[in-house]
Amino acid sequence: MNIMTEKTLEEVVSSEMNKPNEAIKMRGDKVIVHYGEKQALFGVDLNIREHQVTALIGPSGCGKSTFLRCLNRMNDTIDSARVGGKITLDNEDIYDPKIDVVELRARVGMVFQKPNPFPKSIYENVAYGPKIHGLTRSKAELDAVVESSLKKAALWNEVKDRLTESGTGLSGGQQQRLCIARAIAVSPEVILMDEPCSALDPIATAKVEELIDELRENYTIVIVTHSMQQAARVSQRTAMFHLGYLVEEGPTDKMFTNPDDKRTQDYITGRFG
Ligand SMILES: Nc1ncnc2c1ncn2[C@@H]1O[C@H](COP(=O)(O)OP(=O)(O)OP(=O)(O)O)[C@@H](O)[C@H]1O
Fold first, then answer.
1. Which of 31, 33, 38 to mutate to test the pocket of ligand 1 (most atoms within 8 A of CB)?
2. CA-to-CA distance for 104 and 189, rounded, in angstroms?
3. Which of 137, 218, 258, 259 counts the highest number of beta carbons within 10 A?
């Protein structure tokens, strides 16, 4: 009898632990993008789950970066780009005219393919965002934000004695973690990463991948990657794009072992792309 009760409890606990986090942080609804006459996305419906890493995969030119840039309105900076459909953050339409784009980009931060620290000190690179957003009231508070952001980006120990040195003097992998610290410093809710490891060597890549896994606890992450191994290592959900369409989306382990669509199967096994 006791054994039965224990087993039932164990089952309950285990099913609770294995329950996927269903909270939707961002919702893409029939997202369409044109660059001038050329259509790059054809009605993409894709939800981004909170505290999960979503990997966007697919052959070159399929629209992964275009979709990623829609999520914090970076496409606004491209003159020819027109975005249609609807994208929400916590159920709020991010293309609503009332939305302050600067504030949106603080909530939905971005890390680019090539590390792009400002030609300023390591300290200033991280302090810049909190300063312009008025997030801190004293030098001591700003120091604390810089330190905690560098710690969260797993860079503090390597730079704590050289905060006044230029950010551009760091190694590529350190520069990318500095850019992640810079994004974290304004307390984003979502971090977009566009091939963040493509300019890094395998050791720096492993560090950034480890970091991505740790960041998931506090942030929602969307990453564009060409590396199937990377998608499999860091993400919980994977979305496969092809020729501007979302082919399918699902749990990463399923997408890599038993995808529904032949195009996903062909892509992950290297038959095209
Ligand atoms: N700024 C732009 N102006 C015009 N066309 C663009 C622009 N950016 C992207 N495109 C086009 O939109 C389509 C999708 O490009 P996008 O960069 O989103 O694809 P991707 O899947 O991220 O590719 P890659 O893996 O090569 O980075 C491509 O046909 C591309 O040529």
1. 38
2. 10
3. 259
